[in-house]
Amino acid sequence: MLLNLLGFVLLLMTSVVLGILVWNTRINQPSQVTVRIKDNNYDSKK
Questions:
Q1: Could you give the CA distance from residue 3 to residue 13 in angstroms, rounded to a whole number?
Q2: Which residues are within 8 A (CB) of 15 and not within 5 positions of it... i.e. 6 or more apart?
Q3: What does the alpha-carbon distance between residue 17 and residue 6 come to, in Å, rounded to a whole number?
Q4: SS3 for 29?
Q5: Distances (CA, A) of 2 to 8, 9, 15, 45
């Protein structure tokens, strides 16, 4: 029972995260190049 609940929660979390990611890409609608540039800038700032 507990394992089923845990699996369901994990599934819910992943679906929510995926939904947020898809929603963000839809709102911003950036080209893949700008995303890569942003990621590179973020990595260099670390």
A1: 15
A2: none
A3: 16
A4: coil
A5: 10, 11, 20, 42
CA distance 12 to 9: 5
| pTM listed for this prediction | 0.45
At 30, which helix (H) or strand (E)? Answer: none
pLDDT tens, position by position, 7-44: 999 999 999 999 998 888 776 665 555 556 666 666 66
What are the residue ranges of helices labelled H in 1-46? 2-28, 32-45
Residues present in the chain in total? 46
